[in-house]
Design goal:
By secondary structure, the chain is mainly beta. The protein contains two helices and 41 strands. The longest helix has 6 residues.
Length: 737
């Protein structure tokens, strides 16, 4: 579809500044550009939207304003509210802006009818990350005929390249979600589930007032560790400078990375590391340039390495003296650098991290170069990496992506050099039929985890995926769309062993009442597990399969839920079942409670015991979380999360791994075991001003491990009473300028 170009030339009218109140009655809205053509993009039919949407856009010296009227009967609206940056489950508007019109990054601003807001970044056409917080505002209102979102986006919300004139041409996309009928309307024929998204945005020319800005944040933190009877306090500074012509500098001195967001509870018996998202504001701000990902979970830069457990001495985390980030965004080129320096402490010297990246993008292709360096003094180790990423859009239907990485390490006098390659080709056959294939290779000496993240090396993979959507149904039909997915995935190592070869078929049926059902069949051929013995030989794994059924209710009612039931029969688990149920109840739009329950029962679970010894267990696992969310007012929120994870493992037999990968019964007995972990966090947030907050956080954790079997119900009290952490934290982060 030919892109539409809208021209908006609004002179500065500071005397007629818009009052952000969710009511579009300000004089400046009369001279705004108006747009009301919306297309149905979910399902991807591109027919005219059922409900009218009127979009108004204007600007002044302060920023860009959007006013959106969403016509819809009041009794069909979902008006739930959620905490900032949480998924918005209500009816909502989404505004996405590529301020530099170069396809490198587009910033998302979501507004729910109940006043919820969420932001994030799109990159590489359709990759979304919510690891960005911008200084913007929105207000909503509603009447019987329509609801309104009024949005203010300041010029300094992101670093923009300098415009050659007083007119800035950006790309934009506006969508609207109606939960009651499970439909999404958009201003252009584009949807983020398709391989091309950002490149399909329309152009918008507006009067440009972008200028430089400087922001200074101070923080003060006080902690009380009741478990160890210790108290501490700290202060620090974060500063952000935006030049108005594309340059941005972010720095932090003595930063506080006190945990105000709780990670999920995990007990990891595998030989690979578990990934956790970054939550710290300094590393999420303006980070899209450094977000380089590949196949099988590869991330070139995983900033949670910075400030993690030290390489020597004691302590669960390392303090950071300072960190700095600089980026420069020009017409088709963006480049930047990142550096962080850890403090020395009790028995450790700390680490230093450096990274640099340059990205060139044209209408059809992009080329990036990334390098990193880590100095781990305590273990006399340095690590470097150099990566080339390339993307090419061929015609209107094909996208090609690739990533080549060289990684080198030196520890004491021993050097290693490793390589990795990833190739991905996507083909949009027609609007509702697409497929892709990808291949990747990580050699045995490829070590990226000093700064990056990769679950394992010594890996070769091939993946094929196909998606077919059916969207043409009678008006009287209950079905809205049906989606079929076909997958094939092969994994092997450099020794020529087949690790796994998996076939999967799934189908999802989405209904017009916003409910959905899905089934999934997966079959895995026999192969080997070359990591489970931690270097003592390969374990042969037999073939297996799993069957899964999933149901999701509508988000319209106060009570809603989703869940799945799965039957599986694999070598590593034996015959077993997995069940998940997640009910939620909304007392009002602002107050909700939800319970998440995961239960699994494996009949013959294989676990590594040490060296070449293994044991099989009858294992039961229960992983629960209870969440209470109260959005007391637009400035106040209270969140409570309680997590409990318990395992009861009853030993069957002990085995020894033989020379050909089989398990031989040793005749020895193995102890049963059980464990229980609990975690509680209660967090109150009060917004002093935009991006200025007071946090009051209480957290408590407990855990036990016993070499005997115990029923899951009997494990709750011991896991709660054996306290391993008990902390109270008050944190103030304030924007001075």
């Amino acid at each position: 579809m030919k892109k539409l170009v809208f021209l908006l030339l609004i002179n500065s009218m500071s005397s007629l500044a818009i009052n952000l109140d969710g009511i579009l009655d300000d004089t400046q809205w009369q001279g705004a550009e108006h747009f009301n053509k919306m297309l149905l993009v979910k399902p991807y039919i591109l027919s005219k939207a059922q409900f009218q949407t009127d979009i108004s856009v204007t600007s002044d010296e302060k920023g860009i304003y959007f006013g959106i009227k969403n016509f819809q009967p009041a009794d069909t609206r979902n008006t739930d509210s959620s905490a900032r940056d949480q998924r918005i489950g209500s009816d909502k508007n989404q505004i996405i802006l590529d301020f530099d019109n170069n396809g490198i990054a587009a910033y998302s601003f979501e507004i729910g009818v109940g006043g919820s807001i969420r932001d994030g970044i799109f990159s590489n056409e359709n990759n979304f990350s919510n690891e960005w917080d911008g200084n913007w505002s929105a207000k909503t209102s509603q009447n019987d005929e329509y609801w309104v979102s009024e949005v203010f986006i300041p010029w300094d919300v992101v670093s923009m390249k300098k415009s050659e004139s007083d007119i800035r041409t950006l790309k934009w996309y506006v969508s609207r979600t109606i939960v009651d009928i499970n439909e999404v309307y958009a201003s252009v024929a584009a949807d983020n589930t398709r391989q091309r998204f950002m490149s399909e945005f329309a152009e918008l020319s507006i009067k440009d007032f972008a200028t430089s800005s400087f922001s200074l944040f101070g923080y003060a933190t006080g902690r009380r560790d009741f478990h160890n009877q210790e108290s501490s306090s700290d202060v620090g500074l974060d500063l952000f400078w935006k030049s108005g012509n594309g340059k941005q500098l972010t720095a932090t001195i003595n930063p506080d990375f006190g945990q105000i967001e709780s990670d999920r509870l995990v007990v990891n018996f595998s030989a690979t590391e578990v990934f956790f998202n970054e939550r710290r504001p300094f590393f999420t701000e303006n980070q899209s340039l450094f977000n380089i990902q590949g196949a099988n979970g590869l991330r070139l830069l995983h900033t949670r390495r910075i400030g993690s457990r030290p390489d020597a001495g004691t302590g669960d985390a390392s303090d950071i003296d300072a960190a700095i980030k600089y980026t420069d965004n020009r017409d088709n080129i963006t480049y930047g650098m990142l550096a962080a320096f850890e403090s020395s402490g009790n028995g450790f010297a700390g680490r230093d991290y450096f990274a640099g990246r340059v990205l060139h993008r044209s209408q059809r292709q992009s080329f990036g170069l990334t390098t990193s360096f880590v100095d781990r003094v305590d273990i006399n180790r340095t690590a470097t990496s150099l990566a080339l990423d390339y993307e090419y859009l061929l015609g209107e239907d094909i996208k090609f992506k690739s990533l080549i990485v060289a990684a080198s390490t030196k520890q004491d006098e021993e050097k290693t050099n490793g390589r990795s390659v990833w190739l991905n080709v996507q083909h949009q056959i027609n609007p509702n039929h697409s497929h892709y294939f990808e291949i990747s290779h990580y050699d045995d000496d490829f070590e990226i985890n000093d700064f990056g993240f990769l679950p394992r090396n010594n890996l070769n993979t091939f993946r094929y995926h196909q998606t077919i959507k059916q969207t043409e149904f009678n008006e009287s039909a209950a079905t809205q769309q049906r989606i079929f997915n076909l997958d094939f995935f092969h994994q092997g190592n450099d020794s020529g062993d087949t690790i796994s070869r998996t076939y999967q078929l799934s189908s999802t049926k989405e209904f017009k009442n916003a409910t959905s059902m899905q089934w999934q069949i997966r079959y895995k051929e026999k192969g080997v597990d070359d990591l489970i013995s931690r270097g003592h030989g390969n374990l042969n794994t037999g073939s297996g399969y799993e069957l899964r059924a999933i149901y999701r209710s509508s988000n319209v009612n106060k009570f809603r839920y989703h869940g799945f039931y799965e039957y599986l029969n694999y070598f590593s688990e034996g015959r077993g079942v997995e069940v998940h149920l997640h009910p939620s109840y909304y007392f009002t739009d602002n107050y909700s409670i939800s319970l998440s329950v995961f239960y699994s029962d494996y009949g013959d679970w294989v676990n590594w015991e040490g060296d070449e010894l293994f044991a099989r267990y009858k294992r039961k696992l229960l992983n629960n979380s209870l969440d209470f969310n109260a959005n007391i007012s637009p400035k106040q929120e209270l969140r409570m999360r309680f997590q409990w994870l318990a395992i009861d493992a009853q030993a069957n037999k002990e085995y020894r791994l033989d020379s050909v990968g089989g398990l031989v019964d040793t005749g020895n007995t193995v102890n049963d075991f059980s464990l229980s972990n609990t975690a509680l966090q209660i967090r109150y947030r009060y917004e002093i001003a935009p991006l200025s907050n007071v946090y009051v956080v209480y957290s408590r954790g407990g855990q036990i491990f016993e070499e005997n079997s115990n029923s899951l119900g009997n494990l709750f009290t011991p896991g709660l009473s054996n306290v391993t952490g008990n902390n109270f934290l008050v944190k103030v982060r304030y924007k001075f300028m």
